[in-house]
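Re: that chain you flagged

S.,

Sorry for the slow reply, it's been a week of failed gels. I finally had a moment to sit down with the sequence you sent. For the record, here it is as I used it:
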Amino acid sequence: MTEGKQRFEIVQLSQERPFLQGEVLYFDDEPAEVAAADLDTVTQLHEQLLDILGENVTIDRRQPLISFHLAHELPVDLDFKQALLEMKSEAERIETLIEYYRATIPKVEKTLRAREKATSNGHVH
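Prediction finished late last night. Pasting the structure tokens below so you have them in one place:
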């Protein structure tokens, strides 16, 4: 298990030894202010999606780089998570997550309704 201390990009890999070695370039996010309204929206949508999926969570909105914490909990493919990791702006990650939630929540609700209907043999109780 590892814990990241600073963000980096792998510039070059070396396989000269029996283990991988890499040359990395450290970087920080570009300065960008996240609007309080966007922060409220993204945490509310995150909690809503996980609630629909049967998980009860409460997000601490004061976490630094909250987008990484939210993405970690999402049941999404690794390509989406990698795309978020490569973004160098917290505001851009938050915006992308909001778009994801707004597109995904209705689909998940529809799928769950269809599943409920199928298990009840088409009869709504």
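What I noticed first: Residues 34 and 108 are 27 Å apart (CA to CA).

Talk soon,
D.
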